[in-house]
Amino acid sequence: MSTKNSELATIFHEMAVMLEVLKDNPYRAKAYYKAAKSIEKLESDICSLAASGELEKIPGVGKSIAKHVDEWCREGTFDEYEKLKARFPAGIFEILNIPGLGPKKARVLYRELGISSIGELEYACMENRLVELKGFGVRTQEKILNHIEKIKVYSTMRRAPEAYRLAGEVEKLLRRYSDDVYLVGGLRRFQEVASDVDFLIHVSEPGSVLSHGHLEDFEDVRFVQEDRVLAKYEGFLVDIRISEKPVGVSQLFFFTGSKGHIEALRKIGSGLGITISSDGVFVDEHFVDITSEEEIYNLFGFSYIPPELRENLGEIEAARDRKLPELITDKDICGIFHIHTTYSDGSLTLDKVVQYAVEQGYQYVGISDHSQSAFYAGGLKEDDLKRQRDQIEVVRESYPQIDVYWGIESDILPDGSLDYSEEILGMFDFVIGSVHGSFRMSSEDMSARIVKALNNPYLTILGHPSGRLLLGREPYDVDMNRIIEVAAEKGKIIELNAHPYRLDLDWRWCRRAKELGVPVAINPDAHKAGDFNLHWGIMTARKGWLGREDVFNAKNREAMQRLMKAKPWMG
Ligand SMILES: [Zn+2]
Ligand SMILES: [Zn+2]
């Protein structure tokens, strides 16, 4: 059979699948399936038939399909196909590769839950969204998750929790060769997503110990240079620098980077007679015995720059002027907001959530279930709200050692309004406004939508402001600078969603929020017991220069009580 025939058959099949998922017109989908089949079976070359005007003799090829074939033979593609492809989310093809997920199921996922990529599908599975979905269930959900796990092994990028877990395992393996092992590179500076992990190790005879056979726990081991090995561990790229001498501070410093940071320092150093390389630190060509990274900065007269700030984004100037922030730590967090309970899609009861917050030593906790238009997540109807309000009173009495704030995560609808009346919004202590659907908007429209929400006096915190799912869904198009400016103007708080799939607000924007005095709330967005960990959010905040004074939930109990009473965000 001609390869042309099978190429075109594939295209028609793809069109049929796209039409079936989008469900514009079931007859057209059928027509394309049929055409694909008969072209595949065809003995003679499809474009020769097109040239001799014999296309319509082929079963399943009518006038309009014949036109497409003609166009394709001449141009290599055709308009109808290009148009369809342009409005079809490409990620759905990956979903269709999961065993058991045909166009019908993909259609349900897309239409009911707005899922158009593997990342979104994984996130929805983890939030238990498929269990109640027509044609799905617990077993299907589990199978899908298992399959996605497998796919991940083959891709090279890893989100922070996975990247740091793998780094920890690799470090353990390397410690069999030497105790002198250090994590360097991007992961030492904190990365929300990593493509590899870098290590520095001292081995006195690199050739003999780190030879091929000795690295049996790694895959694809390659010596790039005498002092450098590239290998894979569970599919994750590992870059190992080998030092024959014990690892020195200058090496640690040098391989931690970033390149831009080192370059900028070197430039300043050249005026002061300071040279830094992996071989050591020299002042006026004399070797200086350095015992800590602090000493390197001190040579310049600068304060110490922690690894997460070494991105050449103004940290050197700030260190020179002694204006580096004191970065937030786990211990600074006094309470948590943005927690879902069994009232919507969370798996913990309200009582359990409060109990848990008490056990963690928090001084306050803010409950926020989904609002009514989040039907896929069991959003709260007015009756549910009354029940929840009553129960909030009960837990407040049972747990006097903690303040319980009652909130809601209200959908920001496509027109920018929140999906409850002002009367209802006014009942809550705080309102988180989040975009959960209709992501595909121009930057202008999306920005106007969120700006309108920020103008709502009841909105307290803007939830996951870019909507991204790391390695799953790109952020929506939005003018983040303007969002932060309006938030500043209106006295709003911006969330740094600490879920490791989100880490949204991005650290690159945290500093802008800080500059404009917009408090950042590091929120767990917890749906179940394992979700309360703020670690990745705190790491993101640190990389974004945030200190205790910049973080909303680092305020102590009394300060939070005062704020909740004054409600400065109401304008
Ligand atoms: Zn949300
Ligand atoms: Zn949420």
UniProtKB/TrEMBL annotation:
It is an enzyme of class 2 (transferase). One of its GO terms (molecular function) is zinc ion binding. GO terms for cellular component: cytosol. GO terms for biological process: DNA repair. The keyword Hydrolase applies. Pfam families: DNA_pol_B_thumb, HHH_5, HHH_8, PHP. Coiled coil: none annotated. Its cofactor is Mg(2+). Residues 335-414 form the Polymerase/histidinol phosphatase N-terminal domain. Its EC number is 2.7.7.7. SUPFAM superfamilies: DNA polymerase beta, N-terminal domain-like (SSF47802), Nucleotidyltransferase (SSF81301), PHP domain-like (SSF89550). Residues 53-72, 93-112, 128-147 form the Helix-hairpin-helix DNA-binding motif class domain. The keyword Nuclease applies. It catalyses: DNA(n) + a 2'-deoxyribonucleoside 5'-triphosphate = DNA(n+1) + diphosphate. Residues 3-311 form the DNA-directed DNA polymerase X domain. This is DNA-directed DNA polymerase.
